[in-house]
Amino acid sequence: MSGDKVRLNTEWLCDCGGCHVAIVDLHEKILQVVENIEIQKCPVLTDVKDYPEADVGILTGSIRTEHDRHAAEEMRKKCKTIIAFGTCAVYGGLHGAGLAHTSEEIMDYVYKTTPTTKTDFIPDSDITGLEHVVTPIDEVIDVDLYLPGCPPHAHFIFESLSALVEGRTPKAGQDTVCAGCKRTMKKTEVAEIVNSQDGIAEDDVCFLSQGYICLGSVTLDRCLAPCPNHGIMCTGCAGPTMQILSEPNHDIRTEVSERMARLTKIDKDTIISHMEKSAKTHYAYAMATKMIGNKPTFLIQQWIADVEAGK
Amino acid sequence: MSKTIKIDPVTRIEGHARILLDCDDAGNVNEANFCVNELRGFERILVGMEAVTMPQVTARICGVCPTAHHLVAAKALDNAAGVEPPPAAKLLREFMYMGHYIHSHSLSLFVLAGPDLVFGLDGNLATQNIVGMVEADPDLSKKGLRLRSLGQKINETIGGRGIHPVTAVAGGISFSLSDGQFKRLQELTGEAVELVSELAGKTKTLLFNLLDKNPVLLDKLNSESWYLGTVQGGKLNVYDGGLRAMDNSGATQPEFPATAYKDMMSERAVKNSYAKEVYLNMNGGEQMYRVGPLARINVADSMETPLAQQEFEKFKNDFGTPCHNAVLQMYAKLIELVYCCEKANEIINHPDLRGETRVPADFKGSRGIAHIEAPRGTLIHEYDIDDRGIIRAANMIIATQQNTAAINHSLKEGANNLLAETGDETLLNGLEFVVRCYDPCLACSTHAIGRMALDVEITRKGQTIRRVRRK
Q1: Is B447 inside a domain boundary?
Q2: Is B28 in the same domain as B88?
């Protein structure tokens, strides 16, 4: 055990495991990282069973069960710096969309409603209890650094780990996904929103200009824009920009609609209404965070309930 | 039921789980349960989302096999729209998938199971991990890790991203390869083919050494079950084909399409786990079955590529059909790894690869069902889509879930053999090994890769009489 290496613990709460694979996906660069970092506890890689004292703790995933809450608290006690790593840790992540439903509703659906399930009960004995909602980790413990992304691109992971080794603050740009997008924004005569299944967009023109809803302009770049550069609209997986998080009256739909209305002939309110009707899609990754959930403009549970009721 | 042994949680598998053993007074295991502690409830969460985002959204079910969910979602949307993607799109999807398989099988063989192969089951825990393995056998470890990287890079070049790819859409693939991307894929594929032929022999030797040293594994892990896998013209296929089941004596059943899955499969909740068990409705009853590499090798008549076919023949010759031994899952995985590298090399040289990649696909007001072979076994998605393109109902049958019943059965057998003969540490390692042979991925069936505290609790009539902890 070398004295000058940065001691690292990682732990995995309620998530898909992709953030841990993302660290392995530093590929050749992982060797550079391992030179300067002593990996202590890390699911997958090591057999360390408890939580040793560490300089840096990476937490991926959100809080879904009592086990997750306990693990987050133990990590906080033992690690000097805690990084909330990945969109689930920072904002709750995709399963934060469970916010729109009670645990009971989810359990009923999974264990009683799905067509292939022949039993009619919910597992109850001897397993960790599900908490009522999905919680981003900073609502449970103090977090020192945030690295959203689903998962964050290797570029940002390497920069943040290098910075911690060198004892400096990581360079974290505030660019949106648009910064890395090769498409050109231009004014068009497009008069209606186009659903992706109803058309195939041109390759080099901004999706908004063509009438497709793309969240690139309201999403923090922690991905280097692979979606719009491969013909896919941004779905906001790294979570919203600082502007949206910090301004009470700005949110994803107000920002996108303003920008899109300027680029096209589509009316702003039409766009807002369209986005409310597919709120579960557009707010999927970040709806569990209070930074979004407590906005005065925010009625997501109502919008989702309306859609499900067929309104 | 007077004694309960808990192992909590099993480590070096993808997930949060533990083992519960219920024993009688004589110490025999009555019932073994592999318990899954997490649930995210995706089937419910998907309801109300735009169907068009399903390939991206469902990838997030699992960071270990995102490409399986990504592609099966796109296939389900094709099915709902009633379209066939153009030949180039099918090739690109399958190519992306070969990259993913190379990554996933290498991760499983070299990172997760690798330490057992290199150090054996009684190795020193402090070094029984990939870091220790790199020191003990740098050549195997580095080449294994390199192969994983190559697979992930192939996946990323075609999928836009390695983890949670984005380019498979209803009707095809959302972009066409540039010359630069094509050249990169040629290089990655070429290197993968070279590496896998070096690694295959060595890995096989290590596996057989392990079996020689632990004959109990080969003798006692032969729980019989049915098998389910996918074949195309009788050949093993992981991207598309008919679903073929085999009974425990080796008789194959008529192939069926994914669209018939509701008649063919039953899910059952169990009391102490969030993961449901799945049974095949065949021969007038509910049959316990397995999916994954061993199941696929069992149900297939042959392999599509030459090196994989050679290994396949050796496997069949040595272990017969069906091979019930869970430990040989690793050998089966190795054969598939060889196949995927060879298949990727075939696709990169296919004349149709650079053609048109997408056709229009309108899936509104329709229902889509599709399946794919995820690295760990058959995966089925079904969506009910309304007139606005919103998901109204969703159902999924996940690979690991289908193995739950068989895992429990193998654990019971393994525990009964290990309990009497061995000390705590060997028991713990042995049971973990049994579970890892099935390579369960709990991110999929509900959640989490884990190697954490191992905790055995033995109770008699509700009272703890002994507790063993491994730190």
Answers
A1: yes
A2: no
Give the minimum alpha-carbon distance from B450 to chain A in angstroms, rounded to a whole number. Answer: 4
Quote the minimal CA–CA distance from B24 to chain A in Å: 19
Number of separate domains in chain B? 2
- In this predicted structure, what is the pLDDT of residue B116? 74
Contacts 24+ apart (CB under 8 A), A106-110: A106/B39, A106/B41, A106/B44, A106/B45, A107/B39, A107/B41, A109/B41, A109/B43, A109/B44, A109/B47, A110/B39, A110/B41, A110/B43, A110/B44
B4, B19 contact by CB (below 8 A): no
With cut-offs at 50, 70 and 90, classify the pLDDT of residue A2.
very low
In order of start, what are the domains of chain A with their CATH numbers?
6-96+125-166 (3.40.50.700), 177-308 (no CATH)
Range of B93's domain?
A: 84-222+325-359
pLDDT tens sequence across A290-303: 777 777 667 777 87
Identify whether residues B207 and B153 lie together within a single domain. Answer: yes
Look at residue A128 in the predicted model and tell me its pLDDT. Answer: 57
Any CB–CB contact under 8 A between B367 and chain A? no
Of the listed ranges A69-83, A154-168, B126-140, the least confidently predicted one is B126-140
Give pLDDT < 50 ranges for chain B. Answer: 1-3, 7-16, 442-471
CATH of the domain at B161: 1.10.645.10
Mutate to test the interface with B, among A29, A37, A38, A49 (most CBs of B within 10 A): A49
| B17 domain-assigned | yes
Average pLDDT over residues A236-240: 94
Per-residue pLDDT reduced to its tens digit, A140-154: 999 999 999 999 999
